[in-house]
Amino acid sequence: MVTAIQTREIGHMYALKRVVLYARYSTDQQSPASIETQLDLGKEFVLRQGWHLADTFVDAGVSGLSFETRPGLQAALARSNIGAYDVFLCLTLDRLSRDLEHSARILKILQFHDVELWTVHGAAAVSTMELGLRAVLSQKVLEQVRYRTREGLKTVAKHGRVPGGICYGYRVRREFDDSGKPVRGLRSIDIEEAATIVWIYEQYANGMSPVRIAEELNAGGVPGPRGRLWQGTAIRGHRNRGSGILNNQTYIGLIVFNRLAYRKNPATERRVSRENAGRAPCCPGGAIAQDR
């Protein structure tokens, strides 16, 4: 004879699992269309499993190395606090996180609230061991990508081309090599912006302050860098960092590579720049000055 307690246990065993589906893409690696793909595959998986899709959460254009600054993830985890679902589902573990510490933290939160972590790709609940192994591999892949990117930029600089982004006064020059591949780091002078740069240097040499120069440019309707209004800091910049119009060594024919190192502050999850030690002096005549 089946007791009332056994009946409740059996009913709970065969109850439909409530699922939260999470999707994410990074602006530097994927397109917004990938969100739709992740959601479609996730919904198909939920349907095949015979589960109930309780809610979906999305983080668009957010790095997998962040945690606190992902509103979709935080909202999904907050729902686990009130027992709103039984399964947290994502396409693959790298959509959940690319950081080892964050991955472990997310799993701990879910396990504390009796929520299973599943992936569509694995088609099974993710164990602590699997999560740890995959998180380590994912973080290692990111380190390799950073290394290859940096070495690629170094090669661009060695050939006398610009390894970084475009600065005020220049435009991207598009050329292709013999194999049809684009040649990276080529720049052409923007005549109008170049005239503005010369004017800025002349006014500064005549004793006008950077703040006053910015005010004059805005009054004259001259568009600033990236189309914004001019600020005194855009003119003045920082001497050691080589920032600002007055400190940009590109204007005197020098290309400086690897001046700054960028790291993410684990407390704020914001990227901060640091000056690299042992910077080599710049070379005249348009040569490359490489910070070591």
Précis, in short:
The chain has 292 residues and is of the alpha/beta class. Helix content is 39%, strand content 17%.
Number of helices: 9
Please mark out the parts with pLDDT under 50 across 5 or more consecutive residues, or reply none. Answer: 4-14, 280-292
Average the pLDDT over all residues and give the rounded result.
Answer: 80
Compute the gyration radius: what is it? 27 Å
Q: Which geometry do the CA atoms define?
A: elongated
Strand proportion, as a percent range, falls in 15-25%
> What distance separates the N and C termini?
79 Å
Largest sheet at a glance?
5 strands, mixed
Kindly state the percentage of residues in helix. 25-40%
Q: Structural class of the helices, strands and pairings? A: alpha/beta
| Lateral arrangement of strands in the main beta sheet | 2-1-3-4-5
Q: List SSEs in N-to-C order.
A: HEHEHEHHEEHEEHHHEEEE
Number of strands: 11
Note down, in words, how this protein is organized.
This protein is of the alpha/beta class and 292 residues long. The chain has a 5-stranded mixed sheet with strand order 2-1-3-4-5, with helices on both faces. A two-stranded antiparallel ribbon has the order 6-7. Helix 2 links the parallel strand 1 and strand 2. The protein is elongated. 23% of the residues are buried. The C terminus is likely disordered.
